[in-house]
C-alpha cells in the first residue's frame, strides 16, 4: 500500500491541479485575481459577485451590479473620484485629447437628412470647401437620407482611420447637380482656446474652455500672435472653465511666472510632497496679466489663478472660484472602463488648499452654488465667507485665504437679472443654435457670401427675427418673456453672436458675446490704470 501511495499521490495531485485549472477557466478565474488575495475584504466582494453569477435563482447582469458597486464606493470617497464605464470611455478620452479623426463637420439630422452646420476650422472638410447648409446625401455610395439612421450610425460612417478616404455626394442650395467631395479623413482639432483677439490697442484677450492635451500649444500660438499685434497686457479668461490636465495649467502659469518660483505642490496619502517650479523664460513674464474667474472656474483653472496670485503676478478679477483642490489620476480597470481616483491634494505657493469642504455629502457639495447665491456672495464681496485660520500672506504682502476657491483681487458682481439668466441658458443650452441655423437656411447663399469684416455692419437682428425666436420657443414648450424692451438689446446680441459662430467660428462668437461684459469692462478699466 505504501508503494502504491507513492505512485498515486503525484497522479492525484496532477489530476486535482488539472481540474482546478479547468474550473478556473470555466468560471473565468484568473490566478492573479484578487479573489486569491489574503485580503478578506477583497475576497468578500469577489465571492459575492461569483455567488450571484453562478448560484442566484435568476439571470442577473453582474456587469451592472459591478458598475453600481464601483459608483457607490467612489461616492463615499470624495465628489471628484468618478467611474467611467466602458461605453463612455472613448468619448471622455476623445474630448480631452484635443482632436479626433474624421471629416470634421458638425451637423443636424433634419427630416432624415444630414445638414452641415459648419465645417470645423482646420478640419478636412473645411479645407476642401464643404460649407454650412450642405446636405450630405451619400458616403461611399451608401445612402444617408430617408433611412431613419441614428446620429451615432452617421458618425461611424463619416469617421474612420486616419488618411482613409470617403467620397461624399453633397446637395448645395442653388446648384442643381450633386457635388462630389473626396475627403481624406484626418485629425480634427477640438479646440480649447475659444477666442484670441485684441480688446484694446495694448490688451489682448484669450479664452480657454478647458485644459486638454493641446491647450498649452493653442495658448502659446495665441499669445505669440497677440504679441505681434501689439499686446503688452493679456486678459486670460478662465470663467466657466472646469479644469482638465494639471500639466497644461502648469505650463500656462509658467509663461507668466519667473524661473525658480513655486507654481504649486501636491501632497499624497503618505504625506509625500512634490513641488513644481517655473522652469523657463515665459512669453509674458514681463507683461501685465489679468485672470478672469467666476464661480464655475475649477481645478486646473484655479491652479493658474492661485499660482499667479501667490507669486504677486497680475490681477485676479471676477468672483470666487469653485474650490476644487483634489488631484485625480485615471486608472484602467481592465475591461475598457476606468476610474479617476483622487490621489493627492494640491496647494498654492503660499501653502493654501483651496478645496471646499465635502464632509456633508456630495449633494450638499454640488449645491454649493445655491448656498453662495442665497448668502449674497455673488453680488456682494463682503458676503464671501473666509476662515481666519486659513489666512496666508504672499511675498508681496497680499492677504489670501484657503478653504474654498480663489478669492479675486478685484470683485465684480454677477448680473442676477433673472430674465438675463434665462436668455443665457437659452444661448448655452442650444435653443438659439437651432433657430439661427433655420434662419441661415432661408438664404444660405447670401449669408455664406458675407465676409467676416463686413458682418457687423451688414447683419441686423430684426424684430421679425425676435418674434420668430419667440414662436420657436413656444413650439419647444419653453416660456420666456422676450417682449420686454429692456431685454431686446441682449437678445439681439446673443442672436447675432450665435449667427457669427455658425458662419465664422468661436472667435467671432466670443467677440460679440463679450460686448458690454461687466468683468471685461473692469479689466479694460484696470489695464488703462483707471
From TrEMBL:
Domain PDZ as annotated: residue spans: 89-159
Keyword RNA-binding: no
TM ranges: 7-27
Keyword line: Hydrolase, Membrane, Protease, Serine protease, Transmembrane, Transmembrane helix
Domain of life: Bacteria
SUPFAM superfamilies xref list: ClpP/crotonase (SSF52096), PDZ domain-like (SSF50156)
UniProt key word Nucleus: no
Family: Belongs to the peptidase S41A family.
Protein name (Swiss-Prot/TrEMBL): S41 family peptidase
Amino acid at each position: 500500500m505504501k508503494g502504491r501511495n507513492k505512485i498515486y499521490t503525484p497522479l492525484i495531485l496532477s489530476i486535482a491541479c488539472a481540474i482546478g485549472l479547468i474550473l478556473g477557466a470555466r468560471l473565468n478565474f484568473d490566478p492573479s485575481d484578487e479573489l486569491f488575495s489574503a485580503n478578506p475584504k477583497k475576497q468578500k466582494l469577489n465571492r459575492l459577485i461569483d455567488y450571484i453569477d453562478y448560484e442566484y435563482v435568476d439571470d442577473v447582469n453582474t456587469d451592472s451590479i459591478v458598475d453600481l458597486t464601483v459608483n457607490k464606493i467612489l461616492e463615499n470617497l470624495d465628489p471628484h473620484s468618478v467611474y467611467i464605464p466602458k461605453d463612455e470611455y472613448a468619448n471622455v478620452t476623445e474630448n480631452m485629447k484635443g482632436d479626433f479623426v474624421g471629416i470634421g463637420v458638425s451637423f443636424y439630422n433634419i427630416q432624415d437628412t444630414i445638414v452641415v452646420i459648419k465645417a470645423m476650422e482646420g478640419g478636412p472638410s473645411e479645407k476642401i470647401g464643404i460649407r454650412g447648409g450642405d446636405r450630405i446625401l451619400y458616403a461611399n455610395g451608401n445612402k444617408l437620407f430617408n433611412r431613419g439612421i441614428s446620429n451615432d450610425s452617421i458618425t461611424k460612417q463619416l469617421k474612420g482611420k486616419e488618411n482613409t478616404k470617403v467620397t461624399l455626394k453633397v446637395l448645395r442650395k442653388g446648384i442643381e447637380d450633386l457635388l462630389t467631395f473626396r475627403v481624406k479623413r484626418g485629425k480634427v482639432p477640438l479646440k480649447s482656446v475659444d477666442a484670441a483677439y485684441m480688446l484694446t490697442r495694448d490688451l489682448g484677450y484669450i479664452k480657454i474652455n478647458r485644459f486638454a492635451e493641446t491647450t498649452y500649444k493653442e495658448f502659446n500660438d495665441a499669445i505669440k500672435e497677440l504679441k505681434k499685434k501689439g499686446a503688452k497686457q493679456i486678459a486670460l479668461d478662465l470663467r466657466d472653465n472646469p479644469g482638465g490636465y494639471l500639466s497644461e495649467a502648469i505650463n500656462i502659469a509658467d509663461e507668466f511666472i519667473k524661473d525658480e518660483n513655486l507654481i504649486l505642490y501636491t501632497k499624497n496619502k503618505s504625506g509625500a510632497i512634490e513641488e513644481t517650479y517655473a522652469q523657463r523664460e515665459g512669453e509674458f513674464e514681463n507683461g501685465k496679466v489679468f485672470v478672469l474667474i467666476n464661480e464655475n472656474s475649477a481645478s486646473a483653472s484655479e491652479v493658474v489663478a492661485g499660482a499667479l496670485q501667490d507669486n504677486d503676478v497680475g490681477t485676479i478679477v471676477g468672483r470666487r472660484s469653485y474650490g476644487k483642490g483634489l488631484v485625480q489620476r485615471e486608472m484602467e480597470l481592465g475591461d475598457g472602463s476606468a476610474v479617476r481616483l483622487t490621489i493627492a491634494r494640491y496647494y498654492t505657493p503660499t501653502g493654501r488648499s483651496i478645496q471646499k469642504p465635502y464632509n456633508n455629502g456630495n449633494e450638499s457639495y454640488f449645491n454649493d452654488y445655491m448656498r453662495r447665491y442665497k448668502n449674497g456672495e455673488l453680488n456682494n464681496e463682503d458676503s464671501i465667507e473666509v476662515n481666519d485660520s486659513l489666512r496666508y500672506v504672499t511675498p508681496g504682502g497680499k492677504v489670501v485665504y484657503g478653504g474654498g476657491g480663489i478669492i479675486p483681487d478685484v470683485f465684480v458682481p454677477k448680473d442676477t437679472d433673472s430674465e438675463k439668466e434665462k436668455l443665457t441658458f437659452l444661448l448655452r443650452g442650444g435653443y438659439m443654435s437651432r433657430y439661427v441655423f433655420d434662419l441661415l437656411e432661408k438664404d444660405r447663399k447670401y449669408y455664406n457670401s458675407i465676409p467676416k469684416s463686413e458682418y457687423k455692419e451688414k447683419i441686423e437682428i430684426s424684430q421679425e427675427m425676435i418674434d420668430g425666436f419667440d414662436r420657436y420657443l413656444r413650439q419647444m414648450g419653453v416660456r420666456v418673456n422676450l417682449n420686454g424692451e429692456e431685454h431686446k438689446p441682449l437678445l439681439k446680441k446673443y442672436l447675432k453672436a450665435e449667427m457669427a459662430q455658425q458662419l465664422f467660428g468661436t472667435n467671432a462668437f466670443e467677440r460679440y458675446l463679450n460686448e458690454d461684459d461687466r468683468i471685461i469692462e473692469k479689466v479694460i478699466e484696470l489695464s488703462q490704470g483707471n
